[in-house]
Amino acid sequence: MQGKKLYQEKLFSSFQLSNRVPENNFYRRLKETLNLSFLYKKTQSYYGNCGQKSIDPVVFYKLCLVGYLENIISDRKLIEHCSMRLDILFFLGFDIDEQLPWHSTLSRTRQLFPEKIFEEVFTHILSMCVDKGMVAGHTQAMDSAPIKANASMDSLELKVPEEQLEAYLQKARYQSREDRKPKKNKASYDQQIITADKRELQEIKSRNRNWQRNQDQRPGAANKGAKYTSNKTHYSPTDPDARISVKPGKARKLNYLNNISVDTANHVITDVKAYHADKKDNQYLQDATKRLKHRLKKQGLLFTNLLADAGYSSGENYAFLEKENIISYIPPHGTYKGGPEGFTFCKEENYWLCPRGKKVTFRKRKMVTNSLQDHYLTKRSDCKNCPIKKKCLGKSHEKRIAITVYVEQYQRNNKRVRSKFGKYMKGKRQSTVEPVFGTLTQFMGLRKINTIGIAQANKVMHMSATAYNLKKLMKFMSKTAETMTRQAIVLFSSLRSYLDSLELVLRS
Fold first, then answer.
1. With b meaning 16 or more CB within 10 Å and e meaning fewer, what string describes 403-431?
2. Is the pLDDT assigned to residue 203 strictly greater than 80?
3. Domain spans of the chain?
4. pLDDT of 222
5. pTM (2 decimals)?
6. Nearest CA to 384 among 374, 372, 376, 392?
7. Dihedral pair phi/psi, residue 329, rounded to 5°
8. Where are the beta strands (DSSP E) in 253-358?
């Protein structure tokens, strides 16, 4: 007989979420594992003693975690999604007929709590991973990637000299009233003033001319009025902390730099930080290493090996890591050559000897583009009648050698990198930190920063990394439980067989 289902809402019903959410459900297991009650004490000082009750800080952080676990970066969509999921409601501690917090409450609470709260939660989850034996600590892989900021390149404004700033702002305000709705400029006074010197401005002009000349080979070639934009000449009034950056083959965007460190044992993230995107990776290595070493030390772990790509290469970094007793496996940057070909260095008397036996003597030590260099020079008379002068000097009248003062540190690092174990470490780094970045950007809500300011971006990155580590922890615990169950079954079967054989012996 054919059945036909008729739906009619009941006026009264008995319903319990705990009966509807399966025991092996991810969020049910996460609810049993995750304890964030320490947040009540940590956040108490940020609330008043009277007025309407705000969102529970534990509920707030759980909602944020769900957003990154479900790859949802919009607070409005997150609330809509959670209200439709029984397992998430059970994880949050809400009944089916309870109203979830308003989406704007999440944004206001995220701004209310400082960065250290989000970092403490990240460290708490990391401690749970350490307790389960997931983190070895001795070898860390470091890498960085640009994350798109919540600002458009169309919002860029031109930096002007300090004496012209007021007149420029008045003109901009008038233009805004005439053409478009005026926008609030969130940049500070210092961020609106141009700080580049004449040499840097001339370089930007030359680059701009070359860029426009070759624009037909670039994305967006149809826009012939476009100009090359630089952080030295432009800023974003929407998000002043965002910086213009570009990767080969991709368009120029306003980004933040996400720097992470990953333990090679089980790919657990051990450190994460938001930086400005207008600097090189090697300028952030020392800060990240100090913070990472301190965090691992508090967990009782010894940090001895650092793996990174060539972007982190510099003599200053190699010397710093040696001072910290950390072995580096960082390939040298392409600009490092270790001295001119055919020249011999005499360390005792500090000079170079050319192929014709002439000395290139030390003259001075100075800083060049954030790198400390030794400069050597020959006498003009030594090179005047040299048969290889044209090949050796080019258009110069004497031989000039500028080389980093950290040559020995470079050589020791390069020897490790080129060894068989160094090649193994390179593969280890590529299989550790790079897949983690792919997971964060594609599946853990880090494809774009949905907040304004570097402090808020840092909170977003910490929450995404926390969600990633939690997912790793739950998977590790599930595998461990399955392994222990199998071992128990095997042990029980062996014991049963032994007892059966013993019984047969006794009977006989």
1. bbebbebbeebbebbeeeebeebeebbee
2. no
3. 17-113, 344-398
4. 46
5. 0.83
6. 392
7. -125, 75
8. 253-263, 269-276, 305-307, 327-329, 344-346, 351-353
